[in-house]
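Lab notebook, design round three. We kept the backbone fixed and only want residue identities now. Task for the bench partner: fill in a sequence for the structure below.
Input structure tokens:
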């Protein structure tokens, strides 16, 4: 397979645009259990390079550039369920629940559908095409009915069920390519010294042994906690943690700086822990996480799309990318991509950006340090 061009830097992700049909999203939502952010100010997109913008819009990448769609693989979306949206219905392979009510599989909250749309929505010709529209979706609902709250027990059971599905896979069915967990505990941890006996930690380790990548959002509590560190289980060394960077140049927010709410940790050198921090997660990658337009839990033409921000969005972007990686690897090597290769290629494909404020003054949020952000095409071209 020829290299994919141009190098995709995330500028102009169409499914992450704040508007569709020149109208704002139906609602602005944040997952419950995390501090709610104020509604964002009106957005001004500064387009300094219109040609580059056009070339890197995800819709053009999907239609004209990349032959990859995630075909042959599926994402397990552990969330609030997935609604049978008309632009996602063809991708849904299974809907389950581990919240204590096996029949409660629908998404009444909207968060899981939004994430699944970023990962695999079909082309709606508006703004919600997924990164891997040929991939399947297995939804495991862990939240309680219509709320966005979940128990760790339900999450653990979802991971156990995922592992069971992996062990029962046959050669003639879709393979699980990634597990997307767009939630986290409301904490800020920098080491995993006290989670060794946690059941969730143990099951994540088992999934890793079967080469199943688990992508977890880093958390949205940076301002709330006022300290560095990732939300559980994002700091677990076996997961791929997703932090959020800005994907639009706003009035008060520079392009590609870390989103103000995104949890993070500082490193003295890329992918190396700061002195005093032991066993720091070495797979923290930043991806677009501001003003995502994706699918809403409705097929009403006036309510089909929703707008949200958060590291949840970033996790879904990385999960979609991994599905494309799985497809390309499978076309060459016939099989699931080894987890060590996924980590290696994601790391090598990252671009470095500086977390700089628009006022050019170092602050707690904008520390002038260098971090790593995903580059989809660069990563795929390494396979």
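Proposed sequence:
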């Amino acid at each position: 397979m020829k290299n994919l061009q141009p190098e995709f830097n995330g500028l102009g992700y169409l499914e992450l645009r704040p508007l569709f049909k020149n109208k704002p999203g139906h609602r602005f939502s944040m997952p419950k259990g995390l501090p709610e952010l104020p509604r964002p100010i009106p957005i001004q997109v500064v387009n300094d390079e219109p040609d580059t913008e056009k070339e890197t819009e995800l819709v053009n990448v999907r239609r004209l550039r990349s032959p990859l769609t995630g075909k042959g693989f599926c994402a397990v979306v552990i969330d609030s369920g997935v609604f049978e949206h008309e632009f996602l219905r063809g991708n849904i392979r299974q809907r389950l629940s581990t919240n204590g009510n096996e029949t409660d599989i629908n998404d009444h909250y909207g968060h899981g559908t939004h994430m699944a749309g970023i990962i695999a929505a079909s082309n709606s010709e508006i703004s919600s095409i997924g990164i891997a529209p040929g991939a399947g979706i297995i939804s495991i609902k862990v939240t309680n009915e219509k709320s966005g709250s979940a128990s760790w027990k339900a999450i653990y059971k979802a991971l156990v069920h995922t592992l069971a599905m992996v062990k029962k896979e046959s050669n003639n069915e879709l393979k699980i390519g990634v597990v997307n967990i767009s939630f986290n505990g409301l904490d800020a941890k920098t080491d995993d010294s006290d989670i060794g006996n946690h059941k969730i930690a143990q099951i994540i380790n088992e999934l890793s042994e079967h080469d199943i990548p688990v992508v977890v959002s880093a958390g949205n509590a940076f301002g709330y906690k006022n300290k560095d560190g990732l939300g559980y289980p994002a700091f677990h060394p076996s997961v791929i943690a997703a932090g959020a960077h800005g994907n639009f140049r706003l009035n008060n927010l520079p392009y590609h700086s870390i989103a103000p709410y995104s949890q993070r940790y500082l490193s003295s050198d890329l992918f190396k822990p700061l002195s005093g921090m032991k066993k720091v997660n070495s797979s923290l990658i930043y991806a677009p996480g501001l003003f995502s337009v994706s699918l809403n839990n409705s097929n009403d033409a006036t309510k089909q799309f929703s707008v949200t921000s958060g590291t949840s969005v970033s996790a879904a972007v990385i999960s979609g990318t991994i599905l494309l990686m799985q497809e390309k690897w499978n076309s060459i090597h016939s099989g699931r991509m080894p987890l060590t290769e996924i980590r290696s290629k994601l790391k090598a494909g990252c671009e470095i950006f500086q977390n700089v404020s628009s006022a050019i003054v170092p602050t707690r949020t904008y520390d002038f340090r260098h971090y790593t952000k995903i580059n989809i095409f660069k990563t795929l071209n390494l396979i």
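Keep this in mind before ordering anything: The chain has one domain: 14-380.
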